[in-house]
Amino acid sequence: MKKKWLLASLFLFMIVFSVILLLSLKERTEMPKTERETFTPSTVETFQSFNREDWEIREKFKLGRGYLLARQVAPAPGKVEIKLNSRTADGGEIRTRESFQYGQFEAAIQTADAPGSITGFFLYAPPDLHHEVDIEIFNERKSKVLLTIYQNGKVAKQMEHPLPFDPTKELHDYRIDVLPEETRFLIDGELIQAWKGNFSSKPMQLMINSWYPSWLEVKGDASSPTVIDQVSYSR
After folding, report:
1. What is the pLDDT of residues 167-206, one digit of tens each?
2. Model-level pTM?
3. How many Å separate Cα 111 from the centre of its chain?
4. Contact predicate 175/187, CB 8 Å
5. What is the CATH number of the domain that holds 195?
6. C-alpha distance from residue 135 to each of 20, 105, 124, 196 (Å)
7. According to a count of CB atoms within 10 Å of the terminal CB, is the N or C end of the chain lower?
């Protein structure tokens, strides 16, 4: 009888332990989702028309080998196109008028097919190298992303990540979560990199651009523009 009672107690203990373990694992795997749900409801911009109260187009700005020019940006119903000119090395940029210190930022982007150029999805505030969180996508078929955080006048964190797809062929989702204790980068919902720490000390504008950096070699004509299909952001 005593043996049966011990076996029953052991069996009950194993069941309770298993339930506690499963709940713990579930909590760990769902932590990003829980943090995501703490953001306010997203503002979703589908660009059915270009809302100039919320967004602005960079008029003229020297960057890399050329300029960011307003004429290279072409809003259309349901999208914004940024055209690249390989002969003059000119590109374009759009940015929010509002600034954000923390939040979640996501964009559906199909990059230009323009080797030697990049598409940036990032947060920025002047001066240079002090307040910036970047996803930079190389505008070529066999591509990669460069993830960078600038802080206090220098690179605080940086890594390259090869892309398992051709970003010039279709839309993909790029996301940045800037939190007081962590900054995360996701592509198509998959966590690529997370850096612990507070890297934001000033509100930053959300920007998207395509341009020719001086540290890349222009390898041919741009055969397609960068297409921005949708952008969402929340605090």
Report:
1. 999 999 999 999 999 999 999 999 999 999 999 999 999 9
2. 0.84
3. 13
4. yes
5. 2.60.120.200
6. 39, 11, 12, 17
7. N
